[in-house]
Amino acid sequence: MTWDYYGSGDDFVYKAERKSPEKLVDKLNAKDRKRLKKTLSAAEPSEFFGQDFTKLGDLISLLKSMDLIKSDKKLAKKMKSMDERNVDIVATASKLRKEYELLYRQLEDLVYPKKKKPEGKL
After folding, report:
1. Phi and psi, residue 14, nearest 5°
2. For 12, 66, 70, 122, which has the most beta carbons within 10 A of its beta carbon?
3. Per-residue b/e over 88-106, b at no fewer than 16 CB within 10 Å?
4. DSSP per position, 36-83
5. How far is CA 121 from the centre of its chain?
6. Rounded CA gap, 101 and 50, in Å?
7. Nearest of 63, 55, 48, 64 to residue 86 by alpha carbon
8. pTM reported for the whole predicted model
């Protein structure tokens, strides 16, 4: 079944009347556009989990510093919310990292037990 409108109830919009979302990149000058694209590309998830959050934080900071975001209160509020979510994720990730390291050390001690030092010697 194909729907010819979006939304529900009284707030639906016909496909023909629906506006395509305006790209944020199109509003920027060439220098800012290039910087944003480069930072966005660098923030792409990688195998180094901790670095991803740093890159994501950099991307959020870059977007918040742009005049476009500063002039749009709704967008500024959204960016503040995203920044807070990133901080929460980083805090959770650091807790997980500590637990991972503890578990790893326990497994490492199980596989490679350390020799106990005789009493009285350091």
Report:
1. -70, 150
2. 66
3. eebeeeeeeeeeeeeeeee
4. HHHHHHHTS--S-HHHHHHHHHHHHHHHHHSHHHHH-HHHHHHHHHHH
5. 50
6. 14
7. 55
8. 0.55
Which of 68-77, 81-90, 91-100, 108-117 holds the top average pLDDT? 81-90
How far apart, in whole angstroms, are the C-alpha atoms of residue 23 and residue 40? 14
| Contact yes or no for 90/57 (Cβ under 8 A) | yes
Q: Is 50 exposed, middle or buried (0-12, 13-18, 19+ CB in 10 A)?
A: exposed
- Is 73 or 26 the better-scoring residue by pLDDT? 73
100 pLDDT higher than 80: yes
Cβ–Cβ < 8 Å for 27, 60? no
Handedness of CA 95, 96, 100, 103 (dihedral sign): positive
Instruction: Tell me the torsion sign for CA atoms 94, 99, 102, 106.
Output: negative
Q: Which two tokens stand for residue 64?
A: 């918040």
